[in-house]
Amino acid sequence: MGGGPWTWQWGSGRLSPASHVSLSPQGYTSFWNDCISSGLRGGILIELALRGRIQLEPLTARKKRLLDRKVHLKSDAPTGDILLDETLRHIKATEPAETVQTWIELLTGETWNPFKLQYQLRNVRERIAKNLVEKGILTTEKQNFLLFDMTTHPVSNAAEKQRLLKRLQEGVLERWAGDPHRMDRRTLALLVLAHSSDVLENAFSSLTDERYEAAMNRTKEVLDADPEVEAAKNRGTEMIWAILAAFNKA
Known about the structure:
Keywords: Golgi apparatus, Lipid-binding, Membrane. By secondary structure, the protein is mainly alpha-helical. It is built from ten helices and four strands; from the N terminus they run αββαααββαααααα.
């Protein structure tokens, strides 16, 4: 698993990749977790959709599946965040439009197309960590790892991290209503992204055995749902389910 529970939040409380990244209390992510990078990019796409900047192209007779529908620009109004606005400019400049799955590959640099390499978002974890340091949520330290020194960013505001963990835990426990569409959209997105980044179990690790089992069973119920069916029930969550579909296919 990753180096700690994956928590997300802009300063205003919105889901977004530039406030919390899955850091261990020691301040670094697990070397073995290669899912976090793509999970972060998926979170960027979700945040832009929730802010009304992008959307999936309208459903048609030919393009019914989430992963066949292109990501279209809805508004190019700046968000005020560097990473989100950089992604927005890439999407605006891309012709023809690309799908959700392709955008995750482009933004992570996992593409064989040399003409698309400019769309990669570079140093995302480092830029997120710097943003969090500026917000007072993380700090910066040097740690020695045998043969080399590494800059790490330990959590300095544990209360903020615990608040977001509590939000996720309560979403599948106290506030659970048996239907993902009765969950807050950002809590649903947080659940999907934590799963996609392989850090979800860590988010529930502090629970008692009984509550842990209940949380995991309800989470499984959400994650095992058919994204196509669920997206059709609520168009406001289409991008969230499209991200889950992309990771399910990966």
